[in-house]
Design a protein that fits this description.
The protein is built from five helices and no strands. By secondary structure, it is mainly α. It starts with a helix and ends in a 5-residue tail after the last helix.
Length: 77
């Protein structure tokens, strides 16, 4: 499949992602977000969670706050 064909087949979905400001690299953070949700359920302190997961992902804790915020934002379809 050529690049053009990939875009053409997924055109409407890509436009939806663009409209909602989706950052494509966030797909790599899905597992980190799922761990975050699990830790929240076990009543861990948010500061501890952010530091532990940021270290695990190799990113700054502030970056993780931004990613979590995006993951929890509403999207329009």
């Amino acid at each position: 499949m050529k690049y053009y064909e990939l875009l053409q087949v997924n055109k409407s979905f890509i436009q939806l992602l663009k409209k909602n400001g989706v950052v494509l690299t966030d797909v790599e953070m899905i597992s980190i977000y799922e761990k975050y949700l699990q830790m929240i359920k076990t009543n861990e302190k948010r500061t501890y969670i952010m530091q532990k997961l940021a270290d695990e992902a190799g990113i700054a804790s502030r970056t993780l706050y931004v990613i979590i915020s995006r993951m929890e934002s509403e999207v329009s379809i």
